[in-house]
UniProtKB/TrEMBL annotation:
Organism encoding this protein: Xanthomonas albilineans (strain GPE PC73 / CFBP 7063)
InterPro entries: DUF3987
Protein's UniProt name: DUF3987 domain-containing protein
């Protein structure tokens, strides 16, 4: 025997919606579904956030208490909303079918007969037989999903012999996604007569279905980004960057970012710092993480090559010195081996003759303790954390990791068991404290300071996949992505022209000279100071630069404290003061600056930050665009998906940017909203499913 409910349905709704109400949602409706005899079947509770987000949660009485979820639907389908009223009404009356209980309630308040199956995706799982042979008028929402709902309902009602009509929502002046509640709210004096007089759409086809709408262009999901201003580059590399970009027919961003990261790497993340406070201990080291983003064949890989070539050449003098030292060490080792052999021979003869031997003197004559010289390294491509630690100890000035495709490296860090690797890379961006790695095979490796710049490329699809992880949680949500502050995702040039000309040799020579000069830079020659609080020499900001920095940082932090930015963007922008300092140091030294970092270098750094912020918003767009980026990707796969495909068919193919069920669902919703796919409700033994076919 069922217990008598102690908890009221309204109290149950507040309990079941409690998580959302705690986040600021407000309850907007509680709707009871009853069977033909008027018995309660289930409830649907709705709430809405002030920012427009909506949540719906069904719940039912299980005989003991109210629990979330609808009861299992009978074979014929779940009950219609307001079913007892439908059955009791005059069979000649028009029955309005709307999308959602709020719309049905609004029409019922005008003494009209109205019902709904609950949502745009539930038409196929509902028992429509109570409307058999009746006159039905559909009022779809003013969006693609509303029209598809009308299609699905009309097909089922016509099969039951219903006379089906559809209100022409295109003539009602409704906003996108507007419904009958919106129409009535704008017309408080409207009554049943006014509703019954609304124009009807010409929806009758020979095939007996509701008209499908022509696909509308998908909006561009990417925020606009500015064209890169070459004046932001140091004089020594400006012509070199613009010449290379023109030769490759790529955006200037594609050569400017590698050049700046390359200059920072040539200087070294542990060679010189900049002090950003006049009195406080805030020091930033020139460690930059850069990424150029573009489609395959966009030219990003060739655009990375010029900076890489110069980086690999700057260690030439050091390599020459290493080669001389290596040969000297080999020679000394050969001599030591010879002395050791000679000492053994002398000892053998002495023993044979019975002569006394001085072991200490004998050992000293063959002693050789010189350590082998370490090979200078600047560029690494694919090294484990343990090996990278060894290389950093041998090259304490710092390294740069170059990866033509960064997505694979980032994905490798997301695997379980690689958490310590991620922690290591987070330290590499700071370039400050020591890091200890304990491994069974290699034992304990202590790295005095991790300092690694990063440079590479990425494709948009793989970027979208990774950014969603960085924004929505998981291994990626630890700030690693936010450290790629020189990430650029520019528009490709609108036109392309064939180029086959010599590169500007003088410009490349000036750039090479700048790289070499930074590599050979002696901190004392640029009037660097030292302090106990900083483990490397540093430059201060000039008075003008300090004033500009304080004003700029104050404006930025006030903007962030206003709370208008999403958390991931706030985290990204909060690192811009450090970025501005690092860029200003590189810009100052690249143009032969000495002494305090100049105001001109600081202003250029601010220009970089402004440019990079626009690109950051584009980089993070896939996580906040309601599926538009994924919809574009899916639309390009149209020929690979036959009619009748499901969301599962899509994400099981593991296409880049489309291998997550939630992402695919958002993509399909966006495609449906813009009439590119048509939803087909399917009845199965379990819950109703949805298939899709492509619109013509």
């Amino acid at each position: 025997m069922n217990a008598i409910p102690v908890e009221t349905p309204h109290a149950a709704a507040r309990r079941i919606l409690g998580h959302f109400l705690a986040e600021g949602y407000l309850p907007t409706g509680l709707h009871e579904y009853r069977d033909a005899q008027g018995n309660q079947v289930f409830w649907r509770a709705r709430c809405k956030h002030p920012d427009g987000r909506k949540e719906i949660r069904p719940f039912r009485w299980n005989g003991t208490r109210y629990v979330p979820g609808e009861p299992p639907a009978p074979p014929e389908g779940k009950v219609l909303y307001q079913l007892p009223e439908l059955l009791a009404a005059n069979v000649e009356a028009i029955v309005y079918v709307a999308e959602g209980e709020a719309c049905a309630d609004a029409l019922t308040a005008l003494d009209l007969l109205a019902t709904t199956s609950g949502s745009s995706s539930s038409a196929g799982g509902t028992d429509w037989t109570p409307l058999r042979g009746r006159r039905v008028r559909l009022w779809p929402d003013n969006d693609a999903s509303g029209r598809k709902y009308a299609v699905d309902v009309a097909e089922r009602l016509r099969a039951l012999g219903c006379a089906v009509e559809c209100i022409d929502v295109d003539t009602l002046g409704l906003p996108e996604k507007g419904d009958c509640v919106d129409w009535l709210a704008a017309r408080p004096d409207a009554d049943a007569v006014a509703v019954n007089a609304l124009p009807l759409a010409e929806t009758a086809h020979a095939g007996g279905s509701v008209q499908h709408f022509a696909p509308a262009p998908l909006p561009d999901p990417l925020p606009a980004v500015p064209v890169f201003n070459p004046a932001l580059l140091p004089d020594c590399i400006r012509t070199w960057c613009t010449d290379a970009a023109d030769s490759l027919q790529v955006p200037l961003d594609f050569t400017a970012v590698p050049a700046m990261v390359g200059l920072a790497a040539a200087l070294g993340g542990r060679h010189l710092a900049v002090r950003l406070r006049r009195h406080g201990h805030w020091y930033e080291r020139p460690i930059l993480w850069g990424c150029v983003i573009g489609r395959p064949s966009s030219g990003k890989s060739p655009a990375l090559s010029p900076a890489r070539r110069l980086l690999e050449s700057v260690t030439g003098p050091e390599s020459d010195e290493y080669e001389r030292a290596r040969k000297m060490h080999e020679g000394k080792a050969i001599l030591a081996d010879a002395r050791k052999a000679q000492a053994k021979e002398e000892a053998r003869k002495a023993i044979k003759k019975g002569m006394p031997i001085d072991p200490e003197a004998l050992g000293e004559s063959a002693r050789f303790d010189d350590e082998a010289p370490t090979e200078p390294r600047l560029v690494v491509n694919d090294a484990t954390v343990e090996k990278l630690g060894e290389l950093l100890n041998e090259n304490p000035r710092g390294l740069i990791q170059f990866r033509d495709e960064l997505a694979g490296w980032l994905a490798s860090l997301d695997r379980e068991g690689r958490e310590q690797d991620r922690a290591f890379w987070l330290e590499c961006w700071n370039g400050t404290g020591p890091y200890t790695s304990d491994r069974i095979g290699r034992g304990t490796i202590r790295i005095e300071a991790c300092a690694v710049s990063i440079l590479g490329g990425m494709q948009p699809g793989k970027l979208a996949e990774y950014v969603r992880g960085a924004v929505r949680g998981g291994f990626s949500d630890d700030g690693l992505m936010q450290r790629f502050q020189l990430a650029v995702y520019p528009d490709l040039p609108a036109s392309w022209r064939y180029t086959d000309r010599p590169l500007d040799r003088e410009a490349e020579d000036r750039a090479r000279a700048a790289f070499n000069r930074l590599r050979a830079l002696n901190p004392a020659d640029v009037e660097a100071a030292t302090a106990d609080a900083c483990d490397v020499p540093f430059l201060r900001l000039s008075d003008d630069a300090q004033g500009l920095f304080v004003e700029w940082q104050t404006d930025l932090m006030q903007r962030l404290r206003a709370g208008d930015e999403p958390p991931f963007m706030e985290s990204h922008l909060a690192k811009y003061p450090a970025l501005a300092g690092r860029l200003a140091l590189v810009l100052h030294l690249a143009d032969n600056g000495t002494g305090a970092v100049s105001a001109d270098a600081m202003l250029k750094a601010f220009g970089w930050c402004e440019h990079l912020e626009r690109h950051a918003r584009r980089v993070y767009a896939p996580a906040t665009d309601n599926g538009l980026t994924a919809a574009h990707l899916l639309l390009r796969k149209r020929d690979s998906l036959p009619d009748g495909f499901t969301a599962r068919d899509v994400y099981r193919k593991c296409w880049a940017g489309l291998d997550d069920p939630d992402t695919v669902a958002e993509a399909l919703a966006a495609l449906a909203d813009h009439h590119h796919v048509i939803e087909l409700a399917q009845m199965t033994r379990g819950r109703p499913s949805v298939a899709y076919r492509w619109a013509a």
